[in-house]
Input
Amino acid sequence: MREMIRPRVLCFAAAIVFSLCTGFGVAGEFQDDLRARRARVMERLGPEAILILWSAPPRTYSLDVDYEYHQDHNLYYLTGIDQEETTLVLMPGNATRKEILFIKERNPVREHWTGHLLSKEEAVAQSGVEKVYLSNQFEAFVDAVLARVAYDVPRYYPSREYERFFNAVSAGRGRLSLIFTPKASLSSPLGPVNEFAKRVQERYPGIAVQDASDIFRDLRQVKTPYERKILEHSVEISNQAHLAGMRAARPGVYEYQVKAAIEQVYQTNGAYGWGYPSIVGSGPNSTILHYEKATRKMQPGDLLLVDAAANFGYLTGDITRTYPVSGTFSDLQKEIYGIVLSAQQEAIKVAKPGALLSDIHGKTVEVVKQGLLTLGLITDASGDQYKTWYTNGACHFIGMDVHDVGDFETPLEPGVAFVIEPGIYIREDGLSSLPKNADNDAFIEKVRPAFEKYKNIGIRIEDSFLLTESGLKRLSAGVPRTIDEIESFMKSR
Output
């Protein structure tokens, strides 16, 4: 009985359609994009392969309470279905059934507790996949097709539906494509996907198992026109959320109150919630890269570093702003801020078609090195001393994940979305944590006066960008970024 009544918060298909389509035309635009995505995946797979994707499992928060459900991103990328116990099968070589979906069987008693489940007709309408079975039929389907037995095909039309795949299996060319967890392989500790692959290899030794991660990495890296539109709207919600946070920030206010002001904007604008846990760190907490507690009361003169973005339509940007809670930067804060801002501005000039993310990061390093040398925080700009204070990479892709999949060695092209986020963090233990040796002892002695001067100042400036056919677009331009813009906004609150 406990399993039957287990509380579980679901994101229903109707809510998905509403949030994705409000302001963006009819629902069919999304389904058309899903069909095009599946077609590109099948083109990469080839007619002798079968791809299987599973939904994410529910995650337990505590005892009989689950976290809010969040779909596996690759499955959602191809189906638009945000429901557990969902499986997608792609068989490009089939005559007609190239796309097959398996969904959880409806149960009125369970749905009374956990909410509506998609019917077959609703799954077809939501995903555009026309052949839908129940999830309890999946094992029988897989066993049949891997054994070269036509599944659910009339006897007078015995095996032509699956003929190309069956012939490939007979000839030892059949391939099973799966998405393994990062850094996993068949020799790794076995998770569900690895267990499935192992069983297949044991029962059907003529079928090769391959990782399809590279296919999704390449396709998800370049956003479709529909994805660009949704991403821009997602970042616009984040822009408004940051402004709400800036209005809430002031001495005497707790970090969590700023966080609440930000995340309220997500919900009131139709986002699912945050794209990643919000980072709201004041004073010394601004030097902690992934600070999440948000429990400190802000003091006069503090800087507040806020790294936050919404998840709208399973797409998220990434924005960081650092600003004075009292409304005005101190002279020392301005010196550090000026270096970080200059690093980002110079890096933006590099972000053109054909460039690599490493090129953009490299430009930020050049600027930060010279700035730190001028302030006395390093003694040599030719080496890696700067890494004492500049500890994060400046670039990563954005999309369905805040650190989205993509190939860092692939030159930028229109449709690629990414961030530029230089930062300097003069953290309390920045010097004491260095390895003990003669070189570091000499370095510490020389930079300690500057360290004491700038200690506990942490500044990061991060914007979300989309490279378009007409140039680079800063999606987060709606949030004040320069010293003058920030001070003017803070004073006008």
Remarks:
- The chain has two domains: 13-219, 222-491.
- The chain has 15 helices and 20 strands.
- The first strand starts at residue 49 and ends at 54.
